[in-house]
Amino acid sequence: AKGEGRNRFHYFTPSMQRDAKHRMRLIQDLRHAIAEQEFELYYQPIVGLQQNKCLKAEALIRWRHPTRGLVSPIEFISVAEETGLIVEIGNWVFQQAARQSAIWRDRFGVEVQISINKSPVQFRDEGECFDTWVSLLKKLNLTNNNICVEITEGLLLDGNEAISATLERYRESGIQVSLDDFGTGYSSLAYLKRFEIDFLKIDQSFTRNLDSQSNDFTLCEAIIVMAHKLGMKVIAEGVETEYQRKVLADAGCDYGQGYLFSRPLPSEEFEQRFIEVRLA
Ligand code: C2E
Ligand code: CA
Ligand code: CA
Ligand code: CA
């Protein structure tokens, strides 16, 4: 019977076999990580380009694996999505971010809106989790735009009445919505008029070459003008150089995010560099 079991997988090449094993191991480890709370949120400043001040933060998940060290979300989010584990992870992210926002407000008296990334998979059983989220926000007194949810274009694509209703409920509950990685996916401008979106995040593939390629600059400029006319604010991702910052600020971009300002930081470090400083 043992041999049979092995034969059933004979169509796997050695490298695929390793991949399947790797994947199973990863799933096991992820379950363990959820139970043992091995995740952490790092925070990256989102800077008001006209004020030159950190006004918001994006929460980015990190996994402190007991033997592999800090693991990037790029390595595990897609598997978490495929297995549905993202729902539990996403609920943890939300709670952690909400508590952090309340702590900063209570400790320093400043409101820092925290953005969290929400996978399309998490919208499938929206009803239940949404109510839990909203009651935590109410309990923490965070219903005034303290939390922003970043979604991707794919969600709006299969997006129908249900998604539109969900985004409407967000608005009513004081949660803002960002459209992440704008311009990369199955972009369709039609959904910009159909859905209530507060921020457009220009993907870093457009900001990256602002220095050299004037086409990318033209696109950024056009996105900014369009977003403003539609009543949205614009966040440019991947701002790495002073030149990019200046070009974007001059084009009227509202916010910038990127290594020029800071990499994502553990909460204490974010606090020291961007909240205490802001008060001083
Ligand atoms: P994203 O939402 O587009 O996040 C921005 C990514 O760009 C982050 O990578 C950030 O560290 C990186 N970044 C920021 N500034 C710069 C820059 O100036 N240059 C460059 N080259 N990169 C920059 P990270 O933290 O590795 O996250 C990767 C992706 O993983 C995220 O892309 C997001 O899609 C996903 N992700 C992260 N945290 C979560 C989470 O809590 N839930 C879900 N569902 N997805 C998450
Ligand atoms: Ca994001
Ligand atoms: Ca992004
Ligand atoms: Ca992305």
From TrEMBL:
It comes from the Bacteria. Residues 23-278 form the EAL domain. Coiled coil: none annotated. It is found in: Cell membrane. This is EAL domain-containing protein. The chain holds residues 731 to 1010 of 1019 of the full protein.
